[in-house]
Design goal:
mainly alpha, Arc Repressor Mutant, subunit A, 13 helices, 0% strand, DNA-binding, transcription cis-regulatory region binding, HTH-type_TetR-like_transc_reg, HTH_TetR, DNA-binding transcription factor activity
């Protein structure tokens, strides 16, 4: 690690340098907003050259992804705590998605990955970083997915439909909805896609999709008779 710059206090190694660059990016966003923050601003905040930042983060998107991952860790813990009293996995994910939609634009460091460049928003939502963050969320929820018959392939499908729903709301929020109305909408259209399937659905066998949420297996797994 070079000793030049860093306002006279150079980091001890690249890991510390990355942490300080991410922290500087967060401060810049707090002052200027995500849309007006670039690598040059971060470099100036640290008292280093742009080349120093480029060496560790080859592009602004690399830096913003790293910052989003750092900010997401705490946010995921907050969501997991919020649904700790829920019993049905589908209801947990509905609440997590609704909470994310309500909070995303207030979480400046987390939302920067998605709102900084609208032209790239589709690619960003389908990139590895949002998918890994959603898998982390699922792992921290009080759910034993495998015990419910939800294998890794099925979990990946849940991650995809969750992110595609989030993407559609961020791009076009649609008509105004109260918190209760938003949850009711997600419960009606998203929850059936992520509820615990019947045994015949796990193998991908043909059948009437409308029966998947009404069989005895589903009623036992969800703990909500009559659903």
């Amino acid at each position: 690690m070079r000793n030049r710059g860093w306002r006279g206090e150079p980091p001890s190694d690249d890991d510390e340098a990355r942490e300080r660059i991410i922290a500087a990016a967060m401060r810049c966003i707090d002052r200027h907003g995500a849309a007006k923050t670039g690598l040059a601003d971060v470099a100036a905040e640290l008292g280093v050259t742009r080349q120093t930042v480029y060496r560790l983060f080859p592009s602004a998107e690399d830096l913003f992804q790293a910052m989003a991952v750092s900010a997401a860790d705490t946010f995921i813990d907050r969501m997991a705590a919020r649904v700790s009293g829920f019993t049905e996995p589908a209801e947990m994910l509905v609440e997590c998605l609704a909470f994310t939609l309500e909070r995303l634009h207030q979480e400046r460091h987390l939302s920067a990955l998605f709102v900084r460049e609208q032209a790239h928003i589709t690619r960003q939502f389908t990139s590895a970083t949002p998918s890994e963050l959603t898998r982390t969320l699922m792992a921290r929820l009080p759910v034993d997915w495998h015990a419910l018959g939800i294998d890794r392939r099925r979990q990946d499908q849940i991650v995809e439909i969750y992110l595609r729903t989030l993407q559609s709301f961020v791009i076009d929020p649609g008509p105004p909805r109260s918190p209760d109305e938003l949850r009711a909408f997600l419960r009606l259209w998203l929850a059936p896609a992520i509820r615990v399937p019947g045994p015949d659905r796990l193998g991908g066998e043909a059948g009437d999709p409308g029966d998947a949420s009404s069989g005895p297996h589903e009623r036992r797994a969800s703990g909500r008779p009559g659903q």
